[in-house]
Every structure is written in structure tokens, then in C-alpha cells.
Specification:
By secondary structure, this protein is mainly α. It has one domain (17-79). The protein is built from four helices and no strands. The radius of gyration is 16 Å and the shape is elongated. The relative contact order is 0.19.
Length: 83
């Protein structure tokens, strides 16, 4: 249990934010280092899913740039989660 008086709801929100930061950092790193493989993995026959990655298809530089944005945003979010 937490050593602070933080409510269960507040802890849940902080944990969700931490998970979002982890996802952004990891996805960003994969997008930077392996853009074509990463985009290819997420291509889908489900239109809503494919719409998210379609702008990056055949454009590894664009995916790398987006990966840098994700990485920075994830690190910023994580840094704001300190007690």
C-alpha cells in the first residue's frame, strides 16, 4: 500500500498515466529504430486500425520523426509523475 494518503482512484490514474508513458516511450523507440517493420506489423484490414498507421507506410523518416515526438512526450509525462 502507498505510504501517502493518496486515494485508490488517484493511484489508479497515476498508474494509467505511467502505462501510457511506457507505451509512448517503447512505441517511439521502435518507430525510430525499426520504422518499416513496426508500421508493417500494425497494418490491418480493420479500417480504423489501418488509418492510424497508413500515413507512415513507405515513409520511414516520417515514422522516425513521430517516434521522436512519442519518446519526448512519454519522457515528459513520466517526469511529471514524481511525488
Amino acid at each position: 500500500m502507498s505510504d501517502t494518503n493518496e486515494s485508490g482512484a488517484a493511484i489508479g490514474i497515476r498508474r494509467a498515466a505511467e502505462m501510457a508513458a511506457l507505451f509512448m516511450i517503447g512505441d517511439g523507440l521502435l518507430g525510430i529504430t525499426q520504422p518499416e517493420r513496426h508500421v508493417g506489423l500494425w497494418r490491418s484490414e480493420v479500417k480504423a486500425v489501418d488509418a492510424l498507421v497508413k500515413p507512415f507506410g513507405g515513409r520511414p523518416g516520417r515514422r522516425r520523426a513521430y517516434g521522436l515526438v512519442q519518446l519526448g512526450a512519454g519522457l515528459l509525462l513520466a517526469s511529471r509523475l514524481r511525488r
